[in-house]
Specification:
0% of the residues lie in helices and 50% in strands. It has 172 residues and is an all-beta fold.
């Protein structure tokens, strides 16, 4: 199984598999296996707000899918749209100050999404962040977002990237 999305939830780590429709819970301190669960479709990204898990399956129709953390049952979904057009290939997800940040696979952009409506409220453009000399492969793409709520720091990295970046968002 190919591991994809991962998020923390009340002392556990929850992990998705890309194409097996199976997720896992692990103890956050010991990494001991706790239990598994099933979901339909692929698993591309996983995060959470205060009450639910938020999953992306990479499809435009799937958008953002919401799950009850206790039952692992889907409770709803929103199609993510930018100015009326559906956005597909939402990959890594991170919940930041009431918004879902989602990188779009094989692009240098992160969508800022209102989870209540699915509307893209803005884009974070990271073109040029990783210098050409650091790109080792066509697969070396933006693919990692992390937010430290305690310090309000935002980090990004990518698949096969040799560096982790701390970024500050500035208005246009």
């Amino acid at each position: 199984m190919f591991a994809e999305g991962l998020t923390d939830w009340h002392g556990s780590l929850m992990q998705l598999t890309w194409q097996h429709g199976q997720g896992f819970f692990y103890d956050a301190k010991t990494l001991a296996f706790q239990k598994s669960f099933r979901y339909s479709g692929e698993g591309w990204g996983l995060t959470h707000d205060d009450t639910r898990l938020i999953l992306s399956d990479g499809t435009a129709a799937g958008g953002l899918r919401f799950f009850d953390p206790s039952t692992q049952l889907e409770t709803g979904r929103v199609v993510v749209k930018d100015q009326g057009s559906a956005v597909a290939e939402l990959n890594e997800l991170e919940f930041v100050n009431g918004e879902v940040f989602a990188n779009v696979w094989k692009s240098d952009r992160i969508a800022r999404i209102n989870p209540a409506t699915g509307a893209v409220t803005g884009w974070i453009d990271l073109r040029g962040l990783l210098k050409f000399n650091d790109v080792s492969s066509p697969e070396a793409v933006l693919n990692g977002i992390a937010y430290d709520a305690a310090t309000k720091r935002l980090f990004v990295t990518g698949k096969l990237w040799p560096k982790l970046f701390e970024i500050t968002l500035v208005p246009k």
